[in-house]
Request: fold
Amino acid sequence: MALRKENILIVDDDIDILELLQRHLRSMDYHTYKAVSVKEALFILKDTFIDLLITDIQMPEVDGLQLLKFTNEHYPEMPKLVVTGYPSVDGALETFKSGAIDYLTKPFTKAELAQAVEKAFIHGQKRKPNKTVETKPTTTNYGEMVGASEGFQKVTNIIDRVKDNKATVLIKGESGTGKELVARAIHYSGKFSRAPFIAVNCGAIPENLQEAELFGYTKGAFTGANENRNGFFQAAQGGTLFFDEIGTASLAVQTKLLRALQEKEITKVGSQKGERVDIRIIAATNADLKEDIKGKNFREDLYYRLTVVEIEVPPLRERKTDIPLLVEKFLRKYGVEYKDRLLRMSPGALEVLQRYHWPGNIRELENIVQRAVIMSDGLIDVNDLPDFLKYQIEFPEKDFVPLREMEKEYVKRVLLHTQGNKTKAAEILQIDRKTLRDKLD
Reply:
């Protein structure tokens, strides 16, 4: 297998140093990525396989040491090289403790840089011998999505099959599962990624404006139409038009949408002239469209036009093994945004999150992590989580029992709580002592 050109990420708030490093490294036939801050470096690391990190130490907001510690924990096989203009013995020791392989002092020569980079890669090869071989790294990222569960893999496998064609796709799933992220992954990971991606929330557009907003209108088509105007279809020409909550589209819009899918042609409101369109349609819904068809609220012929390819996005409760990966993503995002540093979550707090059933899915998880970052001063622990998470317990499912049996069990629990005090138990149950005695008998 062929050797590949190594990817090197350079992080420095000094633009001149960045340009110098990039120029030297490119002349050595390396592929380079540049970041002027730790925040920018994290976004690159999230989406790109990096072979070597070269970072400055003294930077505003989050410094290079924190970046070293973070990459040492999350990318332990990746070698790290430090360049700095403020050398000191204590600083050098700290960088080596944080996982750096070598320490280069500014100013440095091209030869010194080449020697340090070579040393870093030799060190990396000792830790991972097949580093220079063309291999596809195991990754849990797909666009903005993260996961490693079986359900996540099923979704990404379908994305891989549809991303380079314009087949119509229907994405189904509960609210908060990330249906729009799936649509964006289809668009931005494929060969049409340079074309527009237009997202339309059908439920957010008043029914009387849906046609005009989608297909455009001509001057004088209705009161207030003072000029010709294009709609979302024209804006998405050559790219992807994403309909979120397609089930809320009016029947009139459904009819015109069906024609657009069949004939590849649309007509502006107030016009008799059709316009050719070349777009991919992706729709999403959290409703049961087959039930809507039975209720005459959704066209059956449109449903089958939309479901050329179906993607079922699993709820978070069915992919709980992905929770640590999602938490890491949100900690990185909000830690840098709110605290200007990288936060971590304790195993105990993570265990609490994995026990919860997540009715609001990924959107709810993101809100919880965002709140925890704001409320925490350091390591996020169980105490930083909302009370309803800390004290929730999942009981194993039991067979259904008669109401009388349930009542008996509850009375026993109350008596245990009051340590046999029947007066207190009667107060809690809001019955008198005689009724309680009858129930006990």
Observations:
- Residues 88-92, 126-139, 393-397 have pLDDT under 50 and may be disordered.
- The radius of gyration is 29 Å.
- The CA atoms of residues 344 and 379 lie 5 Å apart.
- The first strand starts at residue 7 and ends at 11.
